[in-house]
Design brief:
Blueprint lengths: L17 H9 L5 H5 L5 E3 L15 E14 L5 E7 L4 E6 L4 H6 L5 E11 L2 E5 L2 E5 L12 E3 L8 H17 L8 H4 L7 H9 L7 H6 L3 H27 L10 H9 L6 H14 L6 E6 L5 H14 L3 E5 L3 H15 L5 E5 L5 H13 L2 E6 L13 E7 L6 H10 L8 E6 L5 H7 L4 E5 L9 E7 L3 H13 L3 E5 L7 H18 L5 E4 L5 H12 L5 E4 L12 E7 L6 H8 L9 E7 L5 H12 L3 H18 L1 H4 L13 H14 L3 H12 L9
Bound molecules: adenosine-5'-diphosphate (ADP) and magnesium ion (MG).
């Protein structure tokens, strides 16, 4: 059997020793196949010389001309300036770093050919540190035959080096083999170029290639590869899912008594959507393999009740359920809810957060380990080594966005006992656009609570310049006079919690001065949990009129009587976050208001984002828009995208390919060897993520 490029190590290439191998490895390149799939970011046109008179700022091009003058300029920063001229115009080359030899080499009268980016300078156009070489007058122009690729690279590895390695590899491609891994029967009528042609084209496009199309990633050769990459990705998630199915999980048949008792004490009936999703979960829990289900439900759709019902199914089967929330405030609130609901049913609820210390913590640990506490609520403190569950049957993760895939998997491992892992239920209030669910979450089953409890009134959202702060304050006073409660949310651009808390402190002082008749509370992330809980409790019991808060209240906080929210500098937040925040109001039956008080001037994107907020309260539409404006990395959070760094594909641009990929993924299962090779080709070293 002939060797394929996937079997040939890069060290086989000329000039690749240990040091270079290591650098290549940093780029995920160990074989010739890897190298071939290391695709250019963009291209340079070095195929023709641009007359100096035709240069425009921003051009990246080859120029040629005669040196008129070469001199050192002693300005703020010493630099070597070299004036070039051809018949059509002139340009300056500027060097900040240069040697005496270099200067002596650049003598007036000699000709240079340069390549670089054209920029405006103090006296006309310049090329800063261009590549250059001297040319003899009569030398023929040795124009490049192809566009020149620019590859993603790493420290200490030059473009030129990468290019030459690729040239060697392409020569191999002409004689060697690159295996088409998508079986021929599945490639019938699909109108993509062959793999080999696509690769050759992208590494050396003809000079008349449509550069615009290439930059957009819409060239058929790129689409061919994007398709293959998305397919590989999808197949790896399917594999992850198959592997999950082979692990055992406790069989938890639907519960009767506890559920009935719980529903009886709830002051409202379930919505149809809650009922449907509860049934979907109930069926999963009764299976002998672990459930991995994502429940999406807009803010206020009542996910907590659904989580409680799932927990009861575990408890009734004599297993424990763990509920994990991303922030202490949210975890506390869940704890209070669960305790209120479950204690009357005789179920002990334990509580665990990072700040719980000493004896109190010990007592909780003991309740968890002995199995006395049937339900455990907490933050990621639930991960810690000394937390030992007696019989963990179900893990509920609320607001999945804050947790990464790895955390999700490691929590599952934590509950592993005698070859079984607990079921997992993941709840998110930030709807995930369909395109992302299909790719990033293809290892999960999905349920959607697509209905809000009756009696909600939509939030009226207004966008106001913070120059009109006085009017906003007057509005707050008016609202509070009508017995409404108000949130005032402070944001900061930095991730710095300290600064955000300081800003909230200052704001609360200022508001106390302007609104002396109101009872004003303050809550932020740096307060002690007990302090926070006390303030939240006071607000909930209407002992406070106005709550100044940082974005810690973003998720889960539930005070139905609060019907006005002011958000300062909303332009700093993503759409999903704004939607979450706004979801804190509109929970009662009175009309609610949300005031987005921005600081002018707004960027075009900022304006667009705020107008989306004004126009819609549909979480799914907002999520789609968020994806459109910010891209999947931002929407999912970096942790999630760790596994989603595509080389060629772009979930948004290539969304139309996803349906075709799904239809192909199933029949592909008949070629398990190809499936593995395809995953290996595209996900290579990242695939360990799939080994659960
Ligand atoms: P989220 O999905 O945002 O987590 P919650 O579970 O916090 O929503 O529920 C929001 C509010 O709606 C809570 O006050 C809860 O008691 C209430 N709620 C939940 N389900 C229903 C229902 N079926 N009918 C009426 N109110 C409900
Ligand atoms: Mg919630």
């Amino acid at each position: 059997m002939s060797q394929t490029l996937a079997d040939i190590p890069v060290s086989r290439l000329k000039g690749v020793g240990a040091a270079l191998s290591l650098k290549l490895e940093r780029l995920g390149i160990t074989t010739l196949q890897d190298l071939l799939f290391h695709l250019p970011l963009r291209y340079q046109d070095r195929s023709r010389v641009v007359p100096l008179g035709a240069l425009r700022p921003g051009d990246e091009c080859v120029i040629e001309g005669e040196i008129k003058l070469c001199d050192i300029q002693h300005g703020r920063r010493r630099s070597l300036l070299c004036r070039l001229q051809d018949g059509t115009g002139s340009v300056t080359l500027r060097f900040f770093h240069f040697s005496a030899a270099q200067k002596n080499n650049l003598v007036a009268g000699s000709r240079l050919r340069c390549f670089g980016e054209v920029r405006p300078g103090p006296a006309g156009l310049e090329l800063v540190h261009p590549e250059y070489s001297r040319v003899a007058d009569d030398e023929l122009q040795a124009a490049e035959e192809y566009l020149t690729p620019v590859y993603p690279t790493t420290e200490g590895l030059h473009q030129a080096r990468l290019r030459s390695l690729l040239q060697q590899t392409i020569a191999q491609l002409e004689i060697g083999e690159i295996i088409e891994l998508i079986p021929a029967p599945l490639r019938r009528n699909w109108q993509f170029p062959a793999l080999r042609d696509a690769l050759l084209y992208l590494h050396r496009p003809p000079v008349d290639a449509d550069q615009h199309l290439l930059l957009e990633g819409m060239h058929p050769a790129q689409r061919r590869l994007a398709f293959e990459e998305l397919l590989a990705h999808h197949l790896s998630l399917m594999k992850l899912r198959q592997q999950t199915r082979q692990i055992g999980a406790p069989v938890l048949p639907p519960a009767q008594q506890l559920v009935r008792a719980y529903l009886q004490q709830l002051p409202f009936p379930l919505t149809a959507a809650q009922q449907r999703v509860t049934e979907e979960i109930g069926r999963d829990l009764a299976q002998p393999s672990p459930m991995l289900r994502l429940v999406q439900g807009d803010v206020g759709s009542g996910k907590t009740v659904v989580a409680a019902l799932a927990a009861l199914q575990a408890v009734e089967n004599d297993y424990q359920a763990a509920i994990m929330a991303p922030t202490e405030i949210l975890a506390e609130q869940h704890f209070i809810n669960f305790r209120t609901w479950l204690q009357p049913l005789g179920i002990e609820v334990a509580w665990l957060a990072g700040k719980l210390k000493g004896k109190a913590r010990q007592a909780q640990l003991e309740a968890i380990q002995s199995g006395r506490a049937k339900v455990v609520v907490g933050t990621h403190a639930l991960f810690q080594d000394d937390v030992i569950f007696a019989r963990l049957g179900l893990v509920v993760i609320d607001e999945q966005h804050r947790f990464g895939v790895h955390q999700r998997l490691s929590l599952r491992e934590k509950g592993r006992q005698q070859g079984q892992v607990p079921h997992q239920l993941i709840m998110t209030a930030t709807p995930i656009p369909r395109t992302l669910t299909m790719s990033a979450y293809a290892d999960l089953d999905c349920s959607v609570i697509d209905e809000l409890p009756p009696g909600r009134t939509p939030v009226n959202t207004v966008v106001i310049d913070d120059g009109r702060r006085d009017q906003v304050i007057a509005r707050v006073r008016a609202a509070c006079t009508e017995q409404r409660q108000v949130y005032w949310v402070c944001t900061l651009i930095e991730e710095s919690e300290v600064l955000q808390c300081q800003a909230a402190e200052v704001t609360s002082e200022v508001l106390r001065e302007s609104l002396p008749e109101l009872r004003i509370g303050l809550v932020h992330g740096r307060m002690k949990p007990a302090e926070k809980a006390a303030v939240m409790q006071a607000f909930k019991q209407a002992e406070l009129d106005l709550l100044v808060a940082t974005t810690v209240i973003e998720v889960g906080v539930d005070v139905p009587n609060a019907s006005v929210m002011i958000i300062e500098n909303p332009e700093r937040l993503g759409l999903a976050q704004l939607h979450q925040l706004r979801g804190r109001v509109g929970r009662g039956s009175v009309e609610s208001h949300c005031v987005l008080m921005y600081h002018a001037p707004l960027s075009r994107q900022g304006r667009e984002r705020l107008s989306v907020m004004r126009e819609t309260s549909d979480g799914f539409r907002i999520a789609e828009k968020d994806l459109e404006l910010r891209g999947p990395g931002e929407v999912l959070g970096t942790r999630q995208t760790g596994m989603m760094q595509f080389r060629m594909a772009d979930l948004q641009r290539d969304a139309d390919l996803l349906t075709r990929i799904r239809t192909l993924a199933d029949p592909m299962q008949q070629w398990p060897e190809q499936v593995d090779l395809l995953i290996q080709r595209w996900l290579g070293h990242a695939e360990h993520y799939g080994n659960v």
